[in-house]
UniProtKB/TrEMBL annotation:
Keyword Transport among record annotations: yes
SUPFAM superfamilies: Cation efflux protein cytoplasmic domain-like (SSF160240), Cation efflux protein transmembrane domain-like (SSF161111)
Organism per entry: Methanocorpusculum petauri
Keyword terms, alphabetized: Membrane, Transmembrane, Transmembrane helix, Transport
Subcellular location: Membrane
Gene3D superfamilies in UniProt: Cation efflux protein transmembrane domain, Cation efflux protein, cytoplasmic domain
Protein name, as recorded: Cation diffusion facilitator family transporter
Lineage, opening ranks: Archaea, Methanobacteriati, Methanobacteriota, Stenosarchaea group, Methanomicrobia
Sequence ranges assigned to domain Cation efflux protein transmembrane in this UniProt record: 16-211
Transmembrane intervals: 12-41, 84-103, 115-135, 168-196
Pfam families referenced in this protein's UniProt entry, alphabetically: Cation_efflux (PF01545), ZT_dimer (PF16916)
Database matches in InterPro entries: Cation_efflux (IPR002524), Cation_efflux_CTD (IPR027470), Cation_efflux_CTD_sf (IPR036837), Cation_efflux_TM (IPR058533), Cation_efflux_TMD_sf (IPR027469), CDF_Transporter (IPR050291)
Keyword Transmembrane helix set for record: yes
The organism's place on the tree of life at top rank: Archaea
Chain ranges of the Cation efflux protein cytoplasmic domain: 216-293
């Protein structure tokens, strides 16, 4: 794995997201104001939040790429987790603004939608859906390959934008056919509810990493399988702890060795386990505590039957 190359790819694709969102934000808001469409303006606000989120993601992937220093001995991966939480809160704010404006227009009537200019809105929504589809695909590909929660959050932002843009496009077609302009506000509220659902998912994932929640069950099982490949070289292992910080994983456990095992031999065992963990789970930092086993069975910290006693 080339960490430097991964960091460069993350920054490049984050920059692409920034410029695409900047273009779409300006296009949607200008078109929405010209037509008087609250659904298009709401999409402009959504893209504006996506733009801000993309800027935050770009900043976070740059910071997370910095090596550990005296003040951040475990690296800067939490910047990505924090950015995911900030992005989610921005989404909640955007959804609140959209619902407020849409409800106000439904109650008061507001400005009438210009039916003559609806085609311009359809074109902008169509361009938005297509652009965000391809940019989100690129973001998600790099996010999965580099295990970046910041880029994955940004990709989900844009994937939601694809759906909402398509929904607004369909709504504009209905307004053009039926001339029922109140549908514009109804569509805007639906867009906002979809955005809130996205925000909940992002908050949950980001908060889990910030609170040092354990790695997924599948990842923990893989870690145990790798350790157990060396079962004939140690007596026991226990106190397995895992967590994630941005794209980085941290694994810690105690390895029990027969009491008379030389230090260099014990070190060779733990290095073999560590190398396999890093090979199969890139960006993993492993801390192993060596414990001597005196042959007493029934110890509460043991996870396996002690082989020293032949049981």
């Amino acid at each position: 794995m080339n960490t430097g190359t991964d960091d460069a790819r993350k920054q490049n694709v984050a920059c692409l997201s920034v410029f695409s969102n900047l273009f779409l934000t300006v296009a949607k808001i200008l078109t929405g104001v010209s037509i008087g469409s609250v659904s298009i303006i709401s999409e402009g606000i959504h893209s504006g939040m996506d733009l801000l989120a993309s800027c935050i993601a770009y900043f976070s992937v740059r910071k997370s790429a910095e090596p550990p220093d005296a003040d951040h001995a475990f690296g800067h991966g939490k910047y990505e987790d924090a950015s995911g939480l900030v992005e989610a809160l921005l989404i909640v704010l955007a959804a609140g603004i959209i619902i407020w404006e849409a409800c106000h227009k439904l109650i008061s009537g507001g400005e009438m939608v210009s039916l003559d200019l609806l085609y311009a809105g359809m074109i902008v929504m169509g361009i938005s859906a297509v652009m965000n589809f391809f940019v989100s695909q690129r973001l998600m590909k790099v996010a999965k390959e580099t295990e970046s929660i910041a880029l994955e959050s940004d990709a989900w932002h844009l994937r939601t934008d694809v759906l909402t843009s398509a929904g607004v496009f369909a709504g504009l077609v209905l307004i053009q056919i039926t001339h029922l302009v109140f549908l514009d506000s109804v569509i805007a509220i639906i867009v906002a509810l979809l955005i809130l659902r996205e925000a909940y998912s992002l908050i949950r994932r980001s908060f889990a990493d910030l609170m040092d929640e354990s790695l997924s069950e599948d990842e923990v099982i893989l870690i145990k399988e790798i350790i157990c490949r060396h079962a004939n070289e140690f007596t026991n292992f226990h106190s397995l702890k895992t967590r994630r910080s941005g794209p980085n994983r941290f694994v810690e456990f105690h390895l029990m060795m027969p009491h008379a095992t030389p230090l260099d031999a014990a070190h060779a065992v733990l290095k073999g386990i560590e190398n396999e963990l890093v090979a199969e789970m890139p960006r993993t930092s492993v801390i192993v505590h060596l414990d001597p086993c005196d042959g007493r069975c029934g110890r509460p910290e043991c996870t396996f039957v002690c082989k020293v006693m032949g049981k």
